[in-house]
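Fold this sequence, please.
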Amino acid sequence: MNSIYLDNNATTKMREEVLEAMLPYYKDLYGNASSVHEFGRVARRAIDDARQKVADLLGASSVEEIFFTSGGTEADNFAIRGVFGALRSKGNHIITSVIEHHAVLNTCKFLEKEGCKVTYVTVDKDGLVDPENIKRAITDKTVLISIMYANNEVGTIEPVTEIGQIAKEKGIYFHTDAVQALGKVPFSAKDMDVDIISISAHKIHGPKGVGAIYIRKGTKITPQIYGGHHEMSKRAGTENVGGIVGFGKAAELAQKEILQDGGRIKDLRDYLYKGISSKIESVRLNGHPVKRLPNTLNVGFKYLEGESIVLNLDMEAIAVSTGSACTSGSLEPSHVLTAMGVDPGDAQGSIRFSLSRYNTKSEMDRVIEVLPPIIKRLRDMSPLYEGHKQ
């Protein structure tokens, strides 16, 4: 039985082309990019080339706006803590949303202990932030607005263009966590009113352990890691040359294939939902029906607990999740679904299917075949379902 991987919002399979591009920098081209000899110069040129490719995918105005990190979590921390530290004398207020990734939410909670005032704006039933709520939350002490580009659990794409315009009009920095959006939907940093963007390689078939932060020229931000003058004195530490090269290659491939892949993946996603909803009763689509990442399908199965669905699908060699990989093992319902007004019991029965370029129609057919009997068997054992039938 061939395994089917449908948890691509957690991480993706590394592309062969990416691995091939990386290998030389772990074997023969192993120099430190800060060294002045030929070994170092080769590594530096490789990083410069990768920085250009990432800048191109992001639509940055300059390669000098791209700084490599260890991943999206570090980039989020850098953005939020860095701006707060740089502008603390001007204000101590940050605006974010209740459905952000925990890399943003927990950073904000930490800063609250440091005297920061944080406003967590709500979302509607589809997971959308209302730009008017952002506008109303602004005070004369607001120094940063941080709203994700697209939600990692339900895929809802936020109105970042409108929010960016509001931030620009008020003279407030705007940060967006675009980790899930990168490579899935086209966007351009220079065409948006955004000052800081967080991204990660392993969501676009690149390696784990490497990400980047886009910082628009002129943005005031305090480094969070101190040491040498690496990354243009913004982020100290010897660069992960092989990982950065892999990120660059993944970004190059994503830029070439984003539209073609996105359309095909969206068709597969919709085909999967149609098959599920036609064969299983009492299901609901979580997230915006249209303004949603092309690869993300979050489905709620009433009267069930999502973990049992995940485990039963795993026994059929099908990998899915109940939500963010960063909160796996938690008994609490998804903070995203709860914020959208989904009943806690229904939220517990929600499953995220997240697709990639490697998924096929035959795999969707397999899921549509094995899922209905799993749901029926679990519901037959569920006291909630028995109560519903009575």
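The longest strand covers residues 296-301. DSSP finds 14 helices and twelve strands in the chain.
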